[in-house]
TrEMBL record:
Lineage: Bacteria, Pseudomonadati, Bacteroidota, Cytophagia, Cytophagales
Family: Belongs to the cation diffusion facilitator (CDF) transporter (TC 2.A.4) family.
Protein name: Cation diffusion facilitator family transporter
The entry's keywords: Membrane, Transmembrane, Transmembrane helix, Transport
Keyword Membrane attached: yes
Limits of the Cation efflux protein transmembrane domain: 9-203
Length: 338
């Protein structure tokens, strides 16, 4: 998996370098600020892809004494660096565009410039799409962020061609700076999105997608002895996950039975979630006066009350630090599974 990530990032760096040369040549012959906008974003592509290559290498390193949870969070940092560079490029583009509005200059060879930018856009579009798809498959925020950035660059290139076409056919050269400012705003917006996601990951902000996936896996493999799961936490470290949860089991289980059920929960999550998953399970004994009402254990030898309810396991109640007998979201007995 790590070798696939590295190979994709190396391809991204190589393609970005080639397109960088093409775009700056296009700016050199046309003197268009709009094309300069595209060229400057390509510099960001190269720098960000190089950093992404390093982050993929670092995130693949095993755990050590100084990093007991591994090095996966570097991927969040990488995405934040890329977003920051995008924002800085957008700010510089706005500055250059305002300067050109005040001190305009003649544009030339616009059809050649459009052709070169169009070629760059097609290549970036394909590369960005592939990186985003592979990033989701490999659960790599670095690949997905790099792909999103490159795909955004492709979209802006095609919009840029449209704008340059209007300038060429109308002769309204001031529109070059106007379009550049609009592109810069779009670039800054995408940079903010990446920075926001990066900060969320570094701060261990709750990821609804990761939690809902974990809940679905547990529901699909739910066993009758798993009376209750609560106080569940899902943390992400790049493409890897760390999960803590409390598992309520029948109080009469001996230590070996408890160990086996805990191991089953760990296996279910480790085998069905993407990336490497580390699971810590804290076992709790059931409380007959409260748990019997929703306990799913058939023919329980110590049951004190009949089963009358079944609790839906969802992200909200499984994340709370309390057993589910406090919950009010119950299914009536007629809707229960036998």
């Amino acid at each position: 998996m790590d070798s696939v990530k590295r190979r994709l990032i190396i391809i991204s760096v190589t393609v970005s370098l080639i397109l960088l040369v093409i775009k700056f040549y296009s700016f050199y012959i046309t003197r268009s600020n709009a094309i300069l906008t595209d060229a400057l974003e390509s510099i960001v592509n190269v720098v960000a892809s190089c950093f992404a290559l390093y982050s993929v290498y670092l995130s693949s390193l095993p755990k050590d004494e100084n990093h007991p949870y591994g090095h996966g969070k570097i991927e969040f940092f990488s995405a934040g660096i890329e977003g920051t560079l995008i924002i800085l490029a957008g700010i510089f583009i706005i500055y250059q565009s305002v300067y050109s509005l005040i001190y305009p200059q003649q544009l030339a060879f616009l059809p050649y410039g459009m052709a070169l930018v169009g070629f760059s856009g097609v290549v970036n579009g394909v590369l960005g799409y592939v990186l985003q798809i592979k990033g989701r498959e490999l659960n790599s925020l670095t690949l997905e962020a790099d792909g999103r950035h490159i795909f955004t660059d492709a979209i802006s290139s095609f919009v840029l061609i449209f704008g340059i076409g209007i300038i060429y056919f109308t002769g309204m050269f001031f529109l070059d700076s106007v379009f550049s400012i609009l592109f810069a705003g779009y670039i800054i917006y995408n940079g903010y999105f990446l920075v926001r996601r990066s900060v969320a990951g570094l701060m261990d902000e709750t990821n609804p997608e990761a939690i809902n996936t974990t809940v679905k896996v547990l529901n699909d493999s739910r066993k009758e002895n798993w009376i209750d799961i609560h106080n569940m936490r899902v943390q992400q470290y790049g493409g890897d996950s760390h999960i803590d949860l409390h598992l309520t089991l029948p109080y009469y289980f001996d230590l070996i039975q408890v160990h086996d059920e805990v191991h089953r929960v760990e296996e279910v999550l480790e085998e069905n979630l993407p990336g490497n998953t580390e699971v810590f399970v804290h076992a709790d004994p059931c409380l007959p006066e409260s748990c019997c009402h929703y306990c799913q254990v058939r023919d329980c030898p110590v049951r004190k009350y009949p089963k009358s309810k079944k609790i839906r396991w969802n992200a909200e109640n499984m994340s709370k630090n309390q057993k589910h007998y406090h919950e009010l979201t119950f299914l009536p007995e007629s809707n229960q599974e036998s």
